Amino acid sequence: MVRAFLAIDLPETLKKELSKLSKLNSFPKGKFKWVKEENFHITLKFLGNISENQIKKIEEICREVAKEFKKFELEVGEVGRFPERGKPRVMWLGVEKGSEVLQRLAETLQRILKQHKIINEKEDYHPHITFLRIKELEDEEEFEVFVKRIAEVARDLKGMKFKVNEIILFKSELSSQGPKYTPLFKIELAE
Asked: What domains are there in the chain, each with its CATH number?
C-alpha cells in the first residue's frame, strides 16, 4: 500500500517566493509547521492508502481525463485559512484566474475515481496552496496580527501566473523530518 494524492506541481520561482513567508521575524506563540519549499503543490484529491493495482487504474483514469483538459494558466490569489471560524489549522494561498478550470478538473477526477470505487465520497473542492500548519495556538490576538503581516508580505505574490501542464500522482512518506513527496507518474494535459 502507498499513501498518495493527485496534485498540480508549482514552478520553482513560485516555490522560492512562497518559502520567503517562513522567514518572517514575528511569530505568535504556539506550534507551527511550515511546508518545505520542495513540497508546495495544489492538491486535486488526497487518496489515502492505495494498492499497486489502484495506481495503474488511477493512471488510466488520469490519461483519459487529461485528454479533456487543455493546459491552462492559474493566478495566485489571497491568503486564507481553514477553518475560517474557530481555531485555524492551516494557512494557505488561494488561486484566482483559472480556478474554475482547476475546479472542473478536480471534480471530474473525483467523480470517476468514485465510480471506480477508488474513493468513497466526493468532497467539496477548494483549490489552494498550503504553506503553514498550525499545531497549537496560544494567543489568538497575536495570531491575527501575524495573519495580517503574512497577508501583507504575500501581496507581492498575488497576480503571479503559472501554467498547469500535468497531473501528478505523488507518494507521501511521513517521517519525523516531515513528509517526503515522490512523483509516481505524471500525465500531461492536452495542448
From this structure: 2-188 (3.90.1140.10)
H helix or E strand, kind and range, residue 73? strand 72-82
> Which residues lie closer than 8 Å to 85 by C-beta, 6 or more apart?
none
pLDDT computed for residue 102 by the predictor: 96
Mean pLDDT for the stretch of residues 40-57: 95
Q: What pLDDT shows up at residue 87?
A: 83
Catalytic site residue from 55, 95, 113, 128: 128
Number of H helices and E strands in the chain, helices first, is 4, 9
8 Å CB contact between 162 and 14:
yes
Q: Of 50, 40, 33, 47, which is closest to residue 18 (Cα–Cα)? A: 40
The active-site residue, picked from 5, 8, 41, 66, is: 41
pLDDT for 165 beyond 90: yes
